[in-house]
Design goal:
Elements lengths: L1 H27 L3 H24 L15 H16 L4 H15 L30 H4 L2 H13 L9 H9 L11 H11 L3
């Protein structure tokens, strides 16, 4: 009886080993998945580097500032991106626009601020009706104000090859021309996050 039991146990063990060997290659077919994932990660990392070169071709200048955005500010980011796409301009134009609006209004669609206001400046880009940017109603419309800014940017010869602060300043003619640079990283991050959303 011991020999019968022993043969049965050895037979079961043999089946288990054979089954394990038969099943082994099936389990190893999954090794292509990590390779595929690795390739996807490598492709994504390469795309991220490409995007960084596209969004910030000159690198950031100086210390960078950052603010947390609420829903209204995020909606204004999306409106700027949508207007940029509608104007047929690229991600870099959106970075310049968002950095400019971050400096001018912290991405808040400001109405007239009374005595605290710089003349009659209003909207995301603090454009002035008296300077020909449009009516109050127009320049407090995010799509219109972005389109107006981009129209000015298009007229700047070689803006794509300029540091952000110079391109923005040429359009805005600010009393603080170097202040746009501090928002370039956050603007690029926002464009990377929302361009395809």
């Amino acid at each position: 009886m011991n020999s019968i039991l022993r043969k049965s146990i050895l037979g079961i063990a043999g089946l288990t080993v054979a089954g394990g060997l038969a099943a082994g290659p099936l389990n190893h077919d999954d090794t292509s998945t990590p390779t595929t994932r690795d390739a996807a990660v490598t492709t994504t990392q390469a795309a991220a580097k490409l995007d960084s070169a596209t969004l910030i071709p000159h690198g950031v200048q100086g210390n960078q500032s950052h603010i947390d955005l609420d829903d209204e500010q995020t909606a204004n980011v999306k409106a700027i991106i949508a207007a940029t796409k509608k104007a047929g301009m690229d991600e870099r134009a959106a970075v310049v626009s968002i950095a400019t609006a971050l400096q001018e209004s912290k991405l808040e669609n400001l109405g007239h601020l009374g005595d605290r206001n710089d003349h009659d400046s209003q909207g995301l880009f603090q454009q002035r009706p008296s300077s020909g940017w449009g009516t109050v109603e127009q320049i407090t419309d995010p799509e219109y104000s972005t389109t107006a800014f981009l129209k000015g940017l298009k007229q700047v010869d070689g803006w794509q090859d300029m540091p952000l602060t110079k391109a923005a300043q040429t359009v805005q003619v600010s009393a603080y021309p170097d202040h746009y640079a501090q928002w370039e990283q956050q603007a690029a991050d926002l464009v990377a996050e929302h361009w395809n959303s």
